[in-house]
Structures are given as structure tokens and as C-alpha cells.
Amino acid sequence: MKGAIIITGAIVGVVLLGRHCMSQCVEGGLPRIIERMPENAPPKWMFRNISAIRENTDRILRLLEEKDAADTSEPGRAAA
Q1: Residue 44 and residue 31 in contact, taking contact as beta carbons nearer than 8 Å
Q2: First to last CA, the chain
Q3: Do residues 40 and 49 touch, judged by C-beta distance below 8 A?
């Protein structure tokens, strides 16, 4: 019985600690963590450049769509 109480207490403690850590990340803790990273850290670069990544992805998709349209419009060329 004592073992079950200890295990339950430990589980409740871990859950409460996890909820506290998650609330800190959501309430502005994540930007502070990222700001403390070195300048060349990939998470910091991604956090700051999400819009640049999105624009680059859109550009790549447009190029691929144009290439696909050009490949399918050529006569005698079979689509793979």
C-alpha cells in the first residue's frame, strides 16, 4: 500500500512538473531559450527565418509545377 502511494505521488509530481515546464514554454519561455542559443544554431535560425523558409518553399513549388507543366506539354514525352 505504501508503495502505491509513493508511486502515485511520484507520477503526480512528474505531471505537475511537466505542466509547469510546458506553461513556461508557451508563455514566452521558448523565445528566451532560443535567444540564448549561439547565432549559428539551427533552431535559432529557423525561429527567426520562418517567413524566408516559407517564401523559398513557395518558390521551389512554383518552379517544380512549371517544370511539370512543361514536361507534360511536350509531345512524345511520357510522364513518369
Answers
A1: no
A2: 66
A3: no
The predicted-structure confidence for 14-32, as pLDDT tens digits, reads as follows 888 888 777 666 666 677 7
> 17 vs 12, 33, 36, 53, 59, CA distance in Å?
9, 18, 23, 34, 43
Contacts of 35 (CB under 8 A, 6+ apart): 44
Q: Is 37 left (phi over 0), alpha (psi -120 to 50) or beta?
A: beta
Name the DSSP letter for residue 29.
I
* One-letter amino acid for residue 63 of the chain: L
Answer whether 1's CB lies under 8 Å from 10's CB. no
What does the alpha-carbon distance between residue 52 and residue 50 come to, in Å, rounded to a whole number? 5
